[in-house]
Amino acid sequence: MPWSSVCITAFCHSRSFLLAVVEGVRPPKMAPPRHGRYTVEPVTFQSEGVELVGNLYLPQGGDVSKAPAVAILGPFCYVKEQAPVQYATRLADEGFVALAFDCRTHGASKGEPRRLEEPQNKVVDLGSAIEFLKSRPEVDADKIAALGVCEGASEVMVAAASNPNIKAAAVVSGHYREHDNDVALIGGLELLGGEIKVEEAEARLQQRSEKAKAALEKYQATGEVEYIPIVDPLRKDVGLPWKPIWDWYHGWADRGIWENRVALMSYVRYMEFESLNAGAAQLKVPTIMIHGEFSDGPPSAYKHFETIASEKKKLVKEDGVNHFQFYEDPAVIDKAVGNAAEFLLEHLG
Q1: With bands split at pLDDT 50, 70 and 90, how would you rate the model's confidence at 14?
Q2: Which InterPro entries match (predicted)?
Q3: What angle do the packed helices 179-192 and 16-24 form, to 10 degrees?
Q4: β partners of residue 70
Q5: Residue 343 near residue 42 (C-beta atoms within 8 A)
């Protein structure tokens, strides 16, 4: 597949991305929940017979009825204690019933094999989360939205394009699912810095696909699951082969909150999932996109925004903001939630 004009900028926008990310990424010191006008209720619900575990954030001490609600999806292989909790707490402060949950095979939720990262399953799990919210007496079933961060943005787009129960969508610092983004991601800093050519990154992607298919065949024949690390400071054959990504994530693994592994066979279906045609082009509900100047692939994000079918759409560009600030920077997250909440409340009615 030829390299398009999106090229390396599909992941990093420009060489200045590198400095912005390296300077901006720190070991995780997550922003403390702000304001505190909410209560938390641990919850469980079913998705295709699998028990999912989440936390439901109720505004104003939980004494609410017929409130708008938001279900939240996070980044690649996320757990609810990472970025989702930062958005859920703030959305609850804005009057939403907010649900942060672990998708199947991740975190506290059930499901085997563990750490199987298939976006298609997350779309289904999001639908189940929406059904759970509809069942709650605190929630107005006609005012339910979905919010996705990073990888979750792609999954929210696809889900909202096909699920009539999702009445509006917010996508934040999205990693949008298309081939050019895959090439740029697997090429890592070497591709960004010109140490390897696009053709070598394409070859790495093809090798990843072949290894994933072999891992799937092995699992089907023997039941054995082959894993690779998600991040590593040196290895190039990991899920997210960028040193700055390692800098942010490894602290979570060190603290035992997040598993630094993904089932290799995940990439069979992962690479089949795309968010432009199946998501943006079919997306007819009101949608707000929030994206940083140095977030993951601004050209890809803006292409998705232009493709969104809904006439009720809004793009918020955050100058000078990098991808990981949408995970942990209190000021950046406060502003993102403020923009998202205002848009969602306006269009949910």
Answers
A1: very low
A2: AB_hydrolase_fold, Polyketide_trans_af380, Xaa-Pro-like_dom
A3: 80
A4: 98, 145
A5: no
Q: Which residue has the tokens 């298939």?
A: 118
301-327 as b/e: b if 16+ CB within 10 A: bebbbebbebeebbebebeebbbbbbb
- State pTM to two decimals: 0.91
Q: For residue 302, give the H/E element and its range.
A: helix 298-307
Decide if 198 is inside a domain: yes
Quick one: what percent of the chain has pLDDT higher than 90?
82
What CATH number should be reported for the domain holding residue 338?
A: 3.40.50.1820
Is residue 207 pLDDT above 60, yes or no?
yes
Residue 303 near residue 181, CB atoms below 8 Å: no
Q: Are residues 99 and 121 in the same domain?
A: yes
Structural domain range at position 264 = 180-270
**Residue-averaged pLDDT of the chain:** 91
Same domain flag for 264 and 280: no
**Residue 168 maps to a domain:** yes
- The pLDDT assigned to 63 comes to 74
